[in-house]
Amino acid sequence: FPCYTSDKGISFTIGDSLYMGLGIPFPSSYSSPTKLWRYMETINFVGWEAMKDFPGTPRTGAVAFTIKDKAYIGLGKSITDEKTYYKDFWVYDAISNSWDSLTFEFPGDAVVDAVAFSLNGMGYVGTGLKANGLYSGEFYQFDPQYGWGGKANMVLPKAGATTFQLDGTVYLCFGHNSHEDSRDVYKFNPEEFRFIPLNSLLPDKYPGITRSYASSFVLTVDGQEYAYIAGGELGLSVAPPYWYCCRYNSGLH
Q1: Ramachandran region of residue 48, left (φ > 0), alpha (ψ -120 to 50) or beta?
Q2: What is the rounded distance in angstroms from the CA atom of residue 59 to the CA atom of residue 135?
């Protein structure tokens, strides 16, 4: 990867390409915090390609979601000033390799370490840590034609959660609040626009499953989709990272 590592950057996929960027690159002298990279595999090229730089203010802990050939990137906080949080969104067009500011203003507070996902042509953004130190449980829906809408207090307030999609259903879990790691797990119901709480990860029997800032991905094994959750930080008083990888079967809840 051309920028080596990045602290709390963003990633998304459009078509068969993976995009990564923003965050704090390490080493800082090797790349820029506004860089966007695309990984491609074609007949003539395999590897990373630099795309047009992010035009907004450099930031860490931003979110990204995609609708068709466009990615929507926003929120986060300054990489130089811990007290400066952002709520602006920018739109990346993968066809033209160009950026534009989003004209619809995000209705929630500026937050860092939120989550975002897309489902049925809509984008969803929620949770995160506010500049005043409070945690958010709010979620907002984005329609590319009509803009933002949403409800407040959809889940327990938290930051550093993770989401994944199994068999067309989005799940949200983990993260932390001011007191402890969150053990709650939710299944998203888009028709009613609400998160349904689940107890399917057995946190009491397997306390090491819970963590913040984890990575999640989905693989199909013998025709069954499974979510895998790895990395992140285990507990507010335990040294990160937590390397143990867990597999989630949605058929067990």
Answers
A1: beta
A2: 19
For the stretch 46-98, pLDDT in tens is 888 999 999 999 999 999 999 999 999 999 999 989 999 999 999 999 999 99
144-189 pLDDT tens trace: 999 999 887 788 899 999 999 998 999 998 898 877 777 788 999 9
Which value, to the nearest 10 degrees, does the dihedral of the CA atoms of residues 215, 144, 39, 51 take? -120
For residues 82 and 95, what is the distance between their CA atoms, to the nearest angstrom?
Answer: 35
Cβ–Cβ under 8 Å, residues 54 and 35: yes
- Comparing CA positions, the residue from 90, 171, 172 lying closest to residue 128 is 172
- Of 26, 17, 21, 57, the C-alpha closest to 37 is 21
Q: Calculate the dihedral angle through the C-alpha atoms of 109, 115, 119, 124, rounding to the nearest 10 degrees.
A: 0
- Answer yes or no: are the C-beta atoms of 20 and 28 closer than 8 Å: no
pTM recorded for the entire structure: 0.89
The DSSP string of 67-115 is ETTEEEEE--EESS-TT-B---EEEEETTTTEEEE-SSPP-S--EES-E
